[in-house]
Amino acid sequence: MKQLTDKALARLRNGAELPDLSGTRYRLLQQVARGGMGIVYAAEDRDLQRRVALKVLEVPGSQGELASRLMREARVLARLEHPGIVPVHDVGTLADGRVFYTMKFVEGQRLDQYIESSASTSDRLRLFQRICDAVAFAHARGVLHRDLKPANVMVGSFGEVLVMDWGLAKIMTDGLETEVATDAAISHSPANRRNDTLGSLITGHGRVMGTPGYMSPEQARGEVESLDARSDIFSLGELLRSLLGEKPSARLSTRSAARLDRSLDAICAKACAQQREGRYVTVQELVSDISRYLDGLAVEAHRESILEKAGRFYRRYRFFILLIAAYLLMRIILLLLIKH
Amino acid sequence: MNKILLGLLLGALLGAIDGGTAWFYPEARAQMAGIIVGSTIKGLIAGVAAGVFARRVNSVPLGILFGLAVGFALAFLVAYMQHDHYLAIILPGSIVGAIVGYATQKYGMTPLTAR
User: Fold this and answer.
1) In degrees, to the nearest 5, what angle opens at C-alpha A146 toward C-alphas A288 and A289?
2) What is the reported pLDDT for A268?
3) Helix, strand, coil proportions of chain A in percent (round to 5)?
4) Which residue in A has a C-alpha nearest to residue B87's C-alpha?
5) For chain B, first and last CA: distance in Å?
6) pTM
7) I want to staple A168 with a disulfide (CB 3.0 to 4.6 A). Which of A147, A210, B45, B87 is the partner?
């Protein structure tokens, strides 16, 4: 009997893994991401003639925990209709019995790649505000993300922001708390073709609990029942630090390596307070403080000294003050000239 | 505050202050009231012009240049009528115009109907 080579075996395995899209309106293009539970493919919607991301279970069957988790993740995304959250288009079961859902195919770069760009601080802060808007919207719909990190945010070619990977989301409505623990964010970016759950902590039964360096202390302690919006606010604070160029290793040290402006540092510190009582209560409060900073106003997270107030006033009205000073100087020079 | 109103108020205020500095010139003290009223009107005209310009053109550098030019023209007119103190009238008058031009661009609000 002839033995198959490893290469041939791998090819056969890949072929067997491919979802059977017969009877659907989708045509398979290529695999873009793979997680612990499912695989994400780029597919073409033949009816609408557009590219979509198709997430499908690795194992056949429309029953069972994995299938219900995937359905639940799709439902979480479906209830979050927001420009900053990847939209779900379709959900169903394939001919081979595997549960799937399709969503927008996102093109662009991940936030961790954007961080390396030369964008200005104000551009980064405005982008951060858009991320916060999406998270605030989810909170208003009773959904916690629980895995906010640069790798889970996509920045589109036109500066649009999409918060991805709601696989760890927790629904908190009607007194019914539901956890969705799945996998993989989806995007076309080559870097996203890596395993997107890389770096996330996975505990028993494939349940993802968060990402070290970004998850809140209470989340790290496994206090799942008591998590609220402030847990995501902690992650947003850490994400903001990353966005402002601080390396994760610097955050672990006692003092930050990157010299952040005091007000920005205070905003990050308040969002990332170890005790959640010390954090912003809502994402909107965090966004408001960022807006105040961008407008040259005092932020709530930092009590300024007189000198700092004067400095901020000067920076805000610098040109106006210089024009007045030029006028006064000219008047004095004219007076002196006339007296002599 | 809308751009024209801001230009009008700031122009009048700075014009009055600019006119008030004539007090430092002993020979002009006898005509203080006339100088202040005239300078206020001059600032007011420059302010309204800068405000109207700011509503049409949304550019800080152009606003400053326009204010400077209007301030210069009005101050030159005043100095020409007096045939004296050209420097003492034109230089501060031009800077007042530039300040009003800057302020109307930077701090004035455009009414929704005008956008």
Assistant:
1) 10
2) 94
3) 45, 20, 35
4) A334
5) 15
6) 0.73
7) A147
